[in-house]
Structures
1.
Amino acid sequence: MRIDVVTIFPEYLEPLNVSLVGKARERGLLDVRVHDLREWTHDRHNTVDDTPYGGGPGMVMKPEPWGEALDAVLESGEGSPVLVVPTPSGRPFTQELAVELSGKPWLVFTPARYEGIDRRVIEEYGDRLDVREVSIGDYVLAGGEAPVLVMVEAVARLLPGVLGNAESHRDDSFAPGAMADLLEGPVFTKPPVWRDRGVPEVLLSGHHGKVARWRRDEAFRRTAQNRPDLIERCDPATLDKKDRSMLAALGWVLGEDGRFGRAVESVEE
Ligand code: JB8
């Protein structure tokens, strides 16, 4: 996969040289190219921003440098990339989207600063490319570079050969399949006793069926505790009998609408 990033802070993307993503690049599994947007300015001050039409606080990124930068990046490769625009007003970045993007040969990221990029840039390239305006969560950062680090790492670890073994993704929180919309439960390693705290017996039993059931129960327990919204929107038909009894034990009951809800008498903790 090829990834281009156009930014006014190329140094912000340095973490892409490190760890999993850095290794994937060294191994030739990922080709990352970071570009300085100011290379496509022509004035003495390398201006990339201007005041917003209609007034208001902050500055807006001028369209001309983005247009020249994106034309140059598009010219430098074969075919059309998916253009990923980080913005708090975008569609949520989810594991499902990470999986979809991991199947594309070429991604271009355009992290903005200030109040964002002049809308006409998104419209212009939206006429020619698959453009995705994406938000990594309901909070506001100072720019799109940190979201690019997040998204590139989420996508890169899904590329063939990047993680140790193909099974590594299967149990991820939010992984499509059995773990869709479930959080992963707790994990343990040696020593078997640490500061008087033992490891759940079932994990030492060598009984793979019991271990799998315990992990699924713990996934439900943690999901119900930390993300009740995921339980509320889950399709009960995807659950087996033991899943339902686990949820019942946690105080969840099927409602008239065929969805799970918290039983009124069930207590918080
Ligand atoms: C200017 O919080 B964010 C985010 C914030 C931003 C820009 C992009 C993304 C650009 N502020 O996801």
2.
Amino acid sequence: MRSSGNEHIQRCPHSFAGTKKRLCYLLFLVGWFAVAGCQSSGSERVYRIGFSQCTGGDEWRKTLLHDMKRELAFHPNYTLLYEDAANNTARQIRQVEALANQNIDLLIISPNESAPFTKVVEAIFRKGIPVILLDRKVNSELYNAYIGGDNVEIGRMAAEFVGKYLNGKGNVSEIWGLRSSSPAQERHKGFREELKKYPGIQVTSEIDGKWERDTARNVLNTSPDKFKNTNLIFAHNDVMAIGAYEVAKRNGLTDKLEFIGIDALPGPSAGMQAVADGTLKASFLYPTGGEEAIETAARILEGKAFKREQILTSIQVDAKNIRGLKAQSDKLLSQQADIEKQSQIIEQLTQTYSFQQNTLYVTLFSLLIAIALGVWAYYLLRARKVAYQTLEQQNEAIRQQKNQLEDVSQQARLATEDKLRFYAYISHEFNTPLSLILTPTEDLLSKKSVSPYELRASLSLVQKNAYRLLRLVDQMLDLRKSDAGKQQLRAAEQDVVAFTRDIVKDFGRKAEKQRIDLQFLTDLTVQPLWFDAEKLDKVLFNLLSNAFKYTPKGGLIHVRLDQLDGQIRIQVKDNGQGMTPDEQAHAFDLFFSGTRPFNLSKGLGLALSKEFMELHRGSISVQSTPERGTLFTVLLPLSNKHLNPSEQIIPDVNERSNTYQRSVELNNQPEIVSTLRSPEKSAATLLIVEDNDDLRTFLSDRLGSEFDIVAECNGALGWERALETIPDLVISDVMLPVETGLEMDGLQLTQRLKTDLRTSHIPVILLTAKGQSEHQIEGARAGADAYLTKPFNTTFLLETIRTTLANRRKWQQRLTSDFSTQTGNRQDKKFLNELTSLIEQNLSDSNFSVQKLSREMGLSRVQLYRKVQALLSMNIMDYLTEIRLKRAKYLLRETNRTMADIAAETGFNSAAYFTTFFKQHSGRTPSEYRKSPVGT
Ligand code: FRU
């Protein structure tokens, strides 16, 4: 097989080189690990060996190349760059020069001819590239090694065979290889020299076969007769000998003519087979030296010792030894074939191994990547978890801060609300005494003449309320001082028994009036104690005032004084309405509102009392049971060890005590006679609902001259009284005590009055200290007809009452004129509609009575009577009659029904009675009415 180009043969540890390389690249791409694994088996240096052959076309050359390749298998790091010149010297020179320029590490050359290659080989050698001459030589010593058979010796062996075969006599022809090649020259030389020993043998002709079978055949074909007298033809190689034999055979010369050649190659069409077949009488083994060339090249490249001239041995192959040799060579060939097969299998296994190894690398690498990714993912997950936890913690912290903020803002809001409520109540608390100062004052000023009694009563009221205001202002100032931390204790040693007794005594008249069992209980006669008289006075006054406020008539209030464990204990106990646990817990909080409206007298006074007791290093506490009573306990330490010098004073005996003010406030209560009535008073009944006794009395007195007055002190009683009396108008304070939770304030009372059928018609005027618009809106929403803020002008109040009553009367008149179509108070309209339809439904029933009607309406007879009277200004019976007449008139005008029919339908037992009744009420008989024109 010929090849004009380079044939690159590379040997890897496994010849699955391409795949491996690709895998290497792949692995290189996917990671260092794979590359490292791949490279671990190929770390040896790679050598490039150039090999130039004169020809590659014949069997001997193919065998040579094959032998080289087999040997190369042991050198995986060698790359063979092979060139075939196809017997063309010029081409081979070009190829060799090209190889030398391709960075080869060594050149093996089998030159076509000797002389033309001498310079080329020398130049390459001088370049430092080692040169091995294989089989053929050049005319120079500048090479590293020569490997080849001993061609002179082979020529001699051939001559010796010829001499003996021809028994020293005969004619011989010599077919030359290429004359300019060294083997041809040396074989000829040896042959001729040895043949001289057989003078009877003549070389009759020389033929130029140029190593080629066809060349030899062609030459012989031109003159076959020339060999008629030739006994033997000696060819320089077997292929030319066989070619000559073929020509001779065709020309019938083979009987007398014998052939010998050189090479003795094994194989079916080569020299050894030709000897076995008898085609050739003998051949001479000429080894290729392929293996030896690679071995020598390896030694040179690896710097080992090598033979410069390696002459390969030759043997004669003829009929005598052909069988053994052939058997051996066949065996060798078959073994070689087996070895090649095995090596193919090994190669395949290696490929598989390599593939598996690479797969393993990839798998391991993937596994490593997966583990790394897993570790990374785990790390990320952990990091995320940690971050999440941190975030959670931060969130939690933020949440807590937010909650704290919310709590604080809630507390702030509640505190603000409480403060606002506190201010509202303070205003209320101020407004009531102010009203009771302003109202009687204005009243006195508006009158032309005033009786001495009236003057004294009014001024007493003014004085009492002015003191009340003073006390309130005093409390406020005390609070302010406490708030600012400026409250200073001014204690002196005094007899606490006498002190307490005096205060209790001051409440004596009040107790008498309210029929309360007030007692001061103590086993002590005199007890000196360091205390601030002004402050303790305020505390005890406050406790007693509260006790009176919440203890009903006929109750008890006991003040007890004892000495106990180095302390003085003062207890104020009542059997009044008591406190809820929540109220107890916050009894001393200034701004606590709890579920009930703020109560100034309790809140402010108790908060202050606590402050004062703490200043004394004492304490105040409360125990209470709802509906059972309350016990306040004050504890004060004996001696003055606990007091700073600045807190101890010498008592000023002239210092004005609170006693006078207190007695005015408590006892100077002029009797305002509520029964004073003006003779020309109106029939209208007013219900006054006001918790402040003074104001209630004042209003009752002031309005009593013009109206019938009923008065109550709280919403629940007010409601009961309203149902009982069905008054013409209600005047109510908005802020009414709602201590037990069952009672109602003024707004709730108004709402109740306005939604109940029995009372919905009653106008309501609300009186309050609250001037804010939202409270007015609340009032309007509850259904109040008017809203007056305290302190109010009595004249204005009177006018408002009169106007409201007048409006009510007009409203009644309107209702009376056309009760069914009026618009107005929804409840009233509903009431009238219900009443009217009930009457209409029962019109034909002559037994239908007011009693039955009131039952159906769910009212008492009196309530129904009063309600109808109030709404329509007419008796319920008159109203019944009115409806009957209206119905009768309708039936007379709109139907042709008989008098008897109409009488029966309108509830009259007889037509005669109907006619009489009709005439009495309308001035005409029913027949006259029927005939008269519409509209009259
Ligand atoms: C092959 C060949 C062989 C011979 C050798 C001499 O090309 O002709 O037959 O022995 O070359 O170089």
